[in-house]
Amino acid sequence: MDLKSAVHRRSPQNLTELEQFCKEEWANIAQSRCAKLVETYPNRLMAVIKAKGASTKY
C-alpha cells in the first residue's frame, strides 16, 4: 500500500491529523517494501529518462 492511499483512507480533517497520520503510516511501511523500491530504483530512473520525464508504468 502506498503512503498517499493509506493516509487518504484515514480522511484527515486538518493539518495536525494529516501530519500524525503520515507519521503513523510511514512507520507501518514494511522494510521489505522499502528494500524493493531501492532495488528497482535504477529501472525506474531509466524509464523516466527514456520517457523524457513523461508518465511511466511506475
TrEMBL record:
<dbReference type="InterPro" id="IPR036397">
    <property type="entry name" value="RNaseH_sf"/>
</dbReference>
<dbReference type="GO" id="GO:0003676">
    <property type="term" value="F:nucleic acid binding"/>
</dbReference>
<protein>
    <submittedName>
        <fullName>Uncharacterized protein</fullName>
    </submittedName>
</protein>
